[in-house]
Structures are given as structure tokens and as C-alpha cells.
């Protein structure tokens, strides 16, 4: 467990709560990932009374699709950020979705109570991946599935390289490799996975930094304040980012691991 666990969790929750109002205006990549996860890996409920969990629900983008796939069962929207849940409240009320504020590493749910977990671009914010998969295993019924999308270590590689030109401090969060993700998940689940690369373009480095802030992803775990927003470094960062400039602006790469986990035993 990292030093100051509870304080770091509060910072992450506060960062995403502040971002809730502007999140959807810059979340096209997040919607694309969620759509792929829903279309490629989530199948309709097999029974009328299934309990599904949207883990890290955010502003509730996936909820209408999940309700369509599980029309008669229970649907739970869980997020660590109260502000996100407030923003998603209208969607939750319209679709008869229960809202829960909680931490993925300490799920406030009973053991073997959930048939399906859906989570898109949320679990990379967990500190202890073993604890995450242990909790998912605990709350899922035997035969239940967890369908996840999470960032891997090559994400924002251009930004990481540009910062290394300037100093040796940590300015971008570390994400696990595909192999390490599997290593943590396989003791608990039967695992099927794939990795996809997404290249995003921004008008300039300022646009990239602004979007990271608007989606709440500018908090660097373990730092008092995020290096992504230090104004005195901006000019240096723009210069260091020049190798990643293109006709459309500047490039940012995201690597996403898509996981389908099946609980085969207690």
C-alpha cells in the first residue's frame, strides 16, 4: 500500500469530482473505448434478475447500453468521486440505477452478489492491482464476469519523454504493462485479453494539458501537486514536445488493455 493511501484516494476523488461538469466535453476517446468494450465484449444478461455493476461509472455514459443489455436486472453505478455520481444522477434515476460512492479496492458490496462487472478506464487509478482483482473475485458469483478496459504503460509515452528532457521528476502516472496486468489477474480469473493503440491529436501541448485537466487525469499519485500543470515548465515542455508534432498538431498515444475475466471457482 502506498504512503498516505487514504489521502491519495481523497485527492483522486476530489479531482474527478471537480472534472465532472466538463468531462463529457473532452471525453471522445473515453467514449470510443467504452463503445468498443460494450460492443466487443459485453453480452446480454442470461437471466432476468442479474446484478450488474458499472465500476467507475463517471458521468454515466455506458449506463443506457448496460440497461439495454440487462433490462430486467439490477444495475449499480459505483464511483469514488461523489461529483461524478451527482452528475450521473439524472441518467441513474431515468434508468432505475442504484448509485454507490465507493472504492474499487474496497467494494461496499456483499460477497458473491454480482453477475457482471463493467469498468472502462477506471481501474488504472487503483493502487494495488492484486487487491482489486481479489475484490472483484469476492463480489462476483461463480461464473460471473468482469469486463474491463484499462490503460497500460505506454500510454502518454510522448508526454513522458518530453518531461524527461526537462527533469527527472515524475510528471505522468505510471501504468502497468499488459503482462503485469495479466500476472495480477490470472490467480483469480480465467482471462481473455487484447491490447489496442489509440493515437489522439491536439492543436498543441496546451490543448493536451487542458484536456487532461478537464477529465480529471492530471493528478499524479504521490505528488503534492500535479507536474502536468506547472506554468513555469510550459515553455520548456512545448519545446521538448516538438518531435511529436504532426500536421494536425501534436500526438498523444494511449495503449488500452481490454480484459474479459471469468470467475471459475470460489
UniProtKB/TrEMBL annotation:
A molecular function (GO) term: S-adenosylmethionine-dependent methyltransferase activity
EC number: 2.1.1.197
Domain Methyltransferase type: start-end pairs: 53-146
Catalytic activity: malonyl-[ACP] + S-adenosyl-L-methionine = malonyl-[ACP] methyl ester + S-adenosyl-L-homocysteine
Keywords, alphabetical: Biotin biosynthesis, Methyltransferase, S-adenosyl-L-methionine, Transferase
Annotated metabolic or biological route of this protein: Cofactor biosynthesis; biotin biosynthesis
CDD domains on file: AdoMet_MTases
Pfam families, alphabetized: Methyltransf_11 (PF08241)
SUPFAM superfamilies, per database record: S-adenosyl-L-methionine-dependent methyltransferases
GO biological process: biotin biosynthetic process; methylation
HAMAP family noted in UniProt: BioC
Protein family: Belongs to the methyltransferase superfamily.
Entry-linked PANTHER family: ARGININE-HYDROXYLASE NDUFAF5, MITOCHONDRIAL (PTHR13090)
Summary of the function given for this chain in its UniProt record: Converts the free carboxyl group of a malonyl-thioester to its methyl ester by transfer of a methyl group from S-adenosyl-L-methionine (SAM). It allows to synthesize pimeloyl-ACP via the fatty acid synthetic pathway.
Protein name (Swiss-Prot/TrEMBL): Malonyl-[acyl-carrier protein] O-methyltransferase
Organism encoding this protein: Nitrincola tibetensis
Source species taxonomy: Bacteria, Pseudomonadati, Pseudomonadota, Gammaproteobacteria, Oceanospirillales
Gene: bioC
Amino acid at each position: 500500500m502506498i504512503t498516505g493511501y487514504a489521502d491519495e484516494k481523497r485527492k483522486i476523488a476530489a479531482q474527478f469530482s471537480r472534472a465532472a461538469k466538463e468531462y463529457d466535453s473532452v471525453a471522445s476517446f473515453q467514449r470510443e473505448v467504452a463503445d468498443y468494450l460494450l460492443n466487443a465484449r459485453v453480452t446480454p444478461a442470461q437471466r432476468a434478475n442479474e446484478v450488474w455493476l458499472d465500476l467507475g461509472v463517471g458521468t454515466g455514459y455506458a449506463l443506457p447500453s448496460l440497461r439495454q443489455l440487462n433490462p430486467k436486472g439490477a444495475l449499480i453505478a459505483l464511483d469514488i468521486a461523489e461529483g461524478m455520481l451527482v452528475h450521473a444522477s439524472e441518467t441513474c434515476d431515468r434508468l432505475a440505477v442504484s448509485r454507490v460512492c465507493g472504492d474499487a479496492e474496497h467494494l461496499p458490496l456483499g460477497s458473491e452478489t454480482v453477475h457482471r462487472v463493467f469498468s472502462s478506464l477506471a481501474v488504472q487509478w487503483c493502487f494495488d492491482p492484486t487487491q482489486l482483482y481479489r475484490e472483484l473475485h469476492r463480489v462476483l458469483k461463480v461464473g460471473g464476469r468482469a469486463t474491463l478496459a484499462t490503460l497500460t504503460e505506454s500510454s502518454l509515452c510522448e508526454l513522458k519523454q518530453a518531461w524527461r528532457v526537462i527533469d527527472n521528476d515524475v510528471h505522468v502516472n505510471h501504468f502497468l504493462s499488459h503482462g503485469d496486468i495479466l500476472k495480477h489477474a490470472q490467480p483469480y480469473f480465467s482471462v481473455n485479453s487484447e491490447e489496442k493503440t489509440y493515437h489522439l491529436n491536439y492543436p498543441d501541448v496546451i490543448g493536451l494539458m487542458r484536456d487532461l485537466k478537464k477529465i480529471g487525469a492530471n493528478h499524479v499519485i504521490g505528488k503534492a501537486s500535479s507536474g502536468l500543470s506547472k506554468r513555469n515548465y510550459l515553455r520548456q515542455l512545448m519545446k521538448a514536445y516538438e518531435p511529436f508534432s504532426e500536421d494536425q498538431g501534436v500526438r498523444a498515444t494511449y495503449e488500452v488493455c481490454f480484459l474479459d475475466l471469468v470467475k471459475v471457482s470460489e
